[in-house]
Recover the amino acids of this structure.
């Protein structure tokens, strides 16, 4: 089992640019979660999907953030336009049951 | 709503000493409880889980946790710390609906040689 795969592992971009983070969940997992981790705010749940349908996006900070899951094996988190305060590590996690989650290695985003 | 308190954002122990990381949950008895570990520059990894089948749960790397209903606690312990145990540890019960995890603030464990 390859585990949750995220790409890219590191992303450096300039303010105002569009950023797309990608996630491939573990095969057979029905739930997919996007988290953001910063020193100041800790680990925050942004959005989660069940069977490719967004269930709760109340954690998405603002309209600049959007997430999609076009099929069971792929999800994206997009930030447009990006801002320096978006700098963080973004994690994707997947699970069969919502609460036993398996995390990817994360994408470290730096917005200058 | 379910929440969790991890006492001590930083814990420092000497190599070979007992590790004790505290976690208290706030609401009704959760059906499940988890401890996750995050090593530097990595994602969170499931360390162990409580599923009501047994109050003492053994996890990976020699860690264990005991569920105590009377104390609303699920503290994580390891008899002898190794340098490789230096990481951040998160206690996580499910929310009241059982749909997602409620992560604590995390405890950073430092191990001194």
């Amino acid at each position: 089992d390859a585990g949750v795969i995220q790409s890219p592992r590191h992303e450096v971009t300039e303010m105002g640019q569009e950023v797309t983070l990608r996630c491939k969940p573990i095969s057979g997992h029905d739930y997919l979660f996007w988290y953001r981790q910063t020193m100041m705010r800790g680990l925050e749940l942004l959005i989660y999907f069940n069977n490719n349908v967004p269930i709760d996006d109340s954690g998405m900070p603002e309209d600049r953030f959007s997430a999609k899951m076009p099929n069971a094996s792929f999800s994206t988190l997009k930030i447009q336009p990006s801002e320096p305060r978006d700098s963080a590590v973004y994690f994707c996690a997947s699970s069969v049951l919502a609460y036993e989650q398996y995390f990817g290695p994360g994408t470290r985003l730096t917005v200058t | 709503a379910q929440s969790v308190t991890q006492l001590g954002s930083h814990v420092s122990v000497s190599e070979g000493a007992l590790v004790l990381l505290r976690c208290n949950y706030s609401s009704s008895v959760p059906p499940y409880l988890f401890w996750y570990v995050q090593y530097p520059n990595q994602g969170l990894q499931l360390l162990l889980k409580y599923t009501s089948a047994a109050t003492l749960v053994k996890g990976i790397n020699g860690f264990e946790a005991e569920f105590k209903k009377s104390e609303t606690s699920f503290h994580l312990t390891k008899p002898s710390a190794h340098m490789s145990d230096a990481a951040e540890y998160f206690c996580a019960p499910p929310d009241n609906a059982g749909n997602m995890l409620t992560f604590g603030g995390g405890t950073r464990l430092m191990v001194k040689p």
About this structure: DSSP finds no helices and eleven strands in chain B. The radius of gyration of chain B is 13 Å. Residues 15 and 82 of chain B are 5 Å apart (CA to CA).
